Amino acid sequence: MEQNTPTLTVRRATQKDIPFLAWCNYEASSPAPGFCYWDPLLEGTNTETMKFIEAVFQADALAWGNVDNFFVVEEKGKSVAGASAFTMDANDYRPLRLSHFAEVARELGWPSKTEKEFLERYEAVWSNSKDETLAPHTSWIIECVAVAPDKRGQGIARVLLEALFEEGRRLGHSHAGISVTDGNEAAKRAYEKAGFHMYLTYGSDYFEGHFPGTVKYRLKL
What is the per-residue pLDDT across 164-179, written as a single tens digit (0 to 9) for each? Predict the structure, then answer.
């Protein structure tokens, strides 16, 4: 599917977009400047976070949207926004598709010891494959939403979301869902303006203060 506005084009992502999709995942996984959720898991691996995320895409190991699940917004041929929309695995709500992780390790040239230590840290953070805070609250989940810093506040996120809504309707979904880290007020405003309504909140105390909290939103398609 491709959509056009006077200055913007929305299209489905391809393998050539992986560096940009990795940036989208990085941005969406960074609740604070200079910090990404992947960073502590990569300690001791001598692997840059962006290189790791690109390898995850190359190996089709991201459970929260593979390349085919992403849409990209272009302005004059330059990618300025992206996001994924997908149906979550009913058996594992966590962000990685572990059945594909050996390929990630091969892409990165990791020895078996490094792969094992990474997976141990991953399992320690997300020990429950059906963690209720990650559980899908609709059948059509939107993730990894990111807009280039110099293009924010220009309505581009709304154009991207509308394309994802249309795709969800085409596939027969009744609702779309999205989650926001508590404190990300700009994202909350953007999603509420697009028609999302707060569905469920997990406060910081739920996470024993180790995480700011999560707000889950839902929208009727």
Answer: 999 999 999 999 999 9
